[in-house]
Amino acid sequence: MPAMARKRRAEAAHEGSSSADAGQDTKKRKTDKTEEAKFYAVRAGHVPGVYKTWAECTKQTWGFKGAHYKKFSSLSDAKAWAAGKHVAASKDTPSKYYAVAVGEPTGIYTDWAEASEAIKGTKGPKYKKFFTKQEAVEYIIAHGNKAATDALGADVNLALKSESETNANTEEETSAQAKRDDTLTHNGDVIPIYTDGASSSNGKVGARAGVGVWFGNGDERNLSERLQGPLQTNQRAELTAIQRALELAPRDASVQIFSDSAYSIKCVTEWSVGWKARGWQTSKGESVKNRDLVEKILDLMADKREMGALVMFKWVKGHASDPGNIAADRLATQGAKMA
Amino acid sequence: MPAMARKRRAEAAHEGSSSADAGQDTKKRKTDKTEEAKFYAVRAGHVPGVYKTWAECTKQTWGFKGAHYKKFSSLSDAKAWAAGKHVAASKDTPSKYYAVAVGEPTGIYTDWAEASEAIKGTKGPKYKKFFTKQEAVEYIIAHGNKAATDALGADVNLALKSESETNANTEEETSAQAKRDDTLTHNGDVIPIYTDGASSSNGKVGARAGVGVWFGNGDERNLSERLQGPLQTNQRAELTAIQRALELAPRDASVQIFSDSAYSIKCVTEWSVGWKARGWQTSKGESVKNRDLVEKILDLMADKREMGALVMFKWVKGHASDPGNIAADRLATQGAKMA
RNA sequence: UGACACCCGAUGCC
DNA sequence: GGCATCGGGTGTCA
């Protein structure tokens, strides 16, 4: 998740500056080893607590909406932070949210001291206090740039989720909704579907891939599932998402599938013709990967064609501020953490 | 990891010699994903456990005094062994060795099914069963041609050793021997050297080629240089790397050169005999390219032979998880960037 | 026809 | 930095 990574980096930079010197000094004095001690305090995650490795911390925070964690060089500090915030975060909802849409770093703060730190030195900062996190998120989406939106990570969920149940009467909300509708509006009866795949630790041993299909807000066909099978790769996840999209839509309905995977789209729209001609050999003579999924999709496309329905693909840039892509991404990410 | 190396060599020989089979093999691997599973159990190392790649295994055992590790094709076996249990080593420590000195491909097999496959269709095959690998090696050296001996790769070391240290049949010793064979912690007789060539924009106008030679970590003879001359091609870079390796090693030392360039190895081990006979004409009557480099290498090899030293070549798959190949690759890439 | 390299490019997933 | 994947291409030989 680039967005998460960005946010993580921002937090680390932000919080790391305050007490780094003192901590290092202390540690250097008492320890002979040169390596810096690390403690990852997870205050909001699957299992809040203190972890010693980044891997464990990641496991506790990956895909967790609103995950909150921080690195310390002192165990006691980490414990205190995790414990202290834990109480506040888990039961008491903060009463104030400071949205910093333009600043360094952008994000949502619950403490004015931190928020003011983030806008200090920024020319033309944009920030505002809200009483709900959702409003703060929406403010950042409306007034911040793409990076600021991306930095929200899973929090964008709040804005998407509430779309249907919110009376969008402010200017910002209205225009945002209009933009979304514009993106999704299509000539007549073509169903727009967003697909995405995710694969944590892609290419490594414990990779877990997830599939996301998004038809629209609150649509019952929206899908979030774990990729089946032993090959947990990003490509298989992306292809499978497209497969599911075709399966979920009515057989006789034309669809337009939005995917950020150029690989997947080209597999089923251009490359497959050459592959068939060469007996599923790649241009370099190697056997085509993920042939099973490609063939399934081709079958589904042929079926639709017979029904008189069209299947269109549109590539969308990943991690742009495309709401549909973000929604599908979120579904895929959540699917990856399923059993 | 003796089994791994042996297996890889067998596959390489297989693919290199019989094109039809090689293609099928590839296809099969691709389709039903029956590729041999590998698990590296580390019983004594920095972090004991089971690892999936040789690179990870190396990381856990490198520099660890008394490191103890072993390769398995079954995860459960690997886990059991890592946990200290004695695993019935059926396929990991073979009790029989089938030497195929004349066949297609030649080599040492531990399974009669494979061995019989290698001699099927070959007129006048030469093969024999042994109870030690060393005997099998000696048989091939005695009854096979040069190519067959070369195909033995590092296993020729077994024959170079004195008869006294035979029967290295326990798991521990097999492991240790594997390390000697494959990670080139040589037994003093043969210096293992990795070579590689790089050529950015190969075949285009502004191509820049580099040469890499790797003797070992921190070895002062490691070389990274820009390819000299106006012809900046990958092939010249690969050949030059071999040339440099021979120049850098002591004149009277036997060496084993690991290269991923089948072209280079065949140039100096098989094709050159025909070229000499035809007056350096290719089989199609064209003049042989890179003759200057090939002749230089042949001269260096002849010189070593006169000194009583052996020069052996072993092909290694490029971009695989071979640490030596990766190291040489980096040196070559670096060299290509030089002035 | 085959084989092994050496690249150039593209999009994701980390 | 790496993997997942594909498309173009040259360097060279049998």
Automatic annotation (TrEMBL), chains A, B:
GO terms for molecular function: magnesium ion binding; nucleic acid binding; RNA-DNA hybrid ribonuclease activity. Residues 1-34 are annotated as: Disordered. Its cofactor is Mg(2+). Keywords: Endonuclease, Hydrolase, Magnesium, Metal-binding, Nuclease. Belongs to the RNase H family. InterPro entries: Ribosomal_bL9/RNase_H1_N, RNase_H, RNase_H1_euk, RNase_H1_N, RNase_H1_N_sf, RNaseH-like_sf, RNaseH_domain, RNaseH_sf. Residues 187-337 form the RNase H type-1 domain. SUPFAM superfamilies: L9 N-domain-like (SSF55658), Ribonuclease H-like (SSF53098). GO terms for biological process: DNA replication, removal of RNA primer. PANTHER family: RIBONUCLEASE H1 (PTHR10642:SF26). This is Ribonuclease H.
